[in-house]
Write a structure and sequence with these properties.
It is built from 7 helices and 19 strands. By secondary structure, it is α+β, with helices and mostly antiparallel strands. It has a single domain, classed as Clavaminate synthase-like (Double-stranded beta-helix, 4-Layer Sandwich). Helix 3 crosses helix 7 and helix 5 packs across helix 6. It is globular and about 60 Å long. The two termini are 25 Å apart.
Amino acid sequence: MTTVNEPHTARLPYTAQPLGEGTAVLLTPNGPDASLDALVPHLLPLLAVAGHLLVRDFAPSLADFNALVQRCSGKITLDPARTFYGDVAQKVDSGADALGLHIENGATPYPPDLLWFHCVKAAAKGSRTTVCDGRRVWELLDPVDRGLYRDRPIVFSRRVGEEHWRRFTAFSLGDGRTPQEVTPDDLRRLSGADDTAVTEHADGSVTYAYTTHAAHPTRWSSHPAWANSIFGPSYNYEVPDIRFADGQEIPRDSLHRLAEITERVTEEIDWRDGDVVLIDNSRVMHGRRAILDPDRTIVNAQSFVPAS
């Protein structure tokens, strides 16, 4: 990988090393004066190749993490069920059980380009975050599964409570209106008419049906990746109905094969205090092993690449 063996690393604020068995990269400070802020112009070009980055030993504060996300992003989004820690970071609060692989907000019409994590306090044992490069998964699929997920769109359908969809819509629009002032039509405009239908209910909740492909090109490449939320969690939300757009269920034998393949290429992040992880959310899925240390504290942020 050319970025790892770049010939002028002495002039860079980081040293890059391969991470794991794929294309991921570990970035550490290149000298005692290297700062997290100096990484800003380098992170997205590195991410476009690597799929995910682990930034270690820069010792950022929570405020530093918030600033880094803002400087690298064109727009910030949120999970309306989580609490903010600063301007962009939200506490990852999804129980203690293991979480299946997924792209962030992949079961909704609003998946961000970038997913960020910051380890405020590492676990004393276990509790590792899992990552799985959807490009590596695609390369291991047999022709039947490739055709199945490349050619047939799937639909995620889920009912969302009024408080959550209103908070998300008001934040995303950012036009000064409060959650109480936005409408289901505002949510429809955010969702996009071509791939999402929104149905209102008498109790103020809505049901959306979002059509997408489980395998698709990624943010920086036309190379297919099997990257989706078919195996994803629903801790703060209703479990979605997931099926093909023609109404047929996804074959169980195919899901079994995909579960085996994704686990085969899944790797783990063994967190240290201060670590920052940046993920290409269109390509790399993430999850979690069971939390064995309740004092573990991880925050995350979701954002979009700046417009060029």
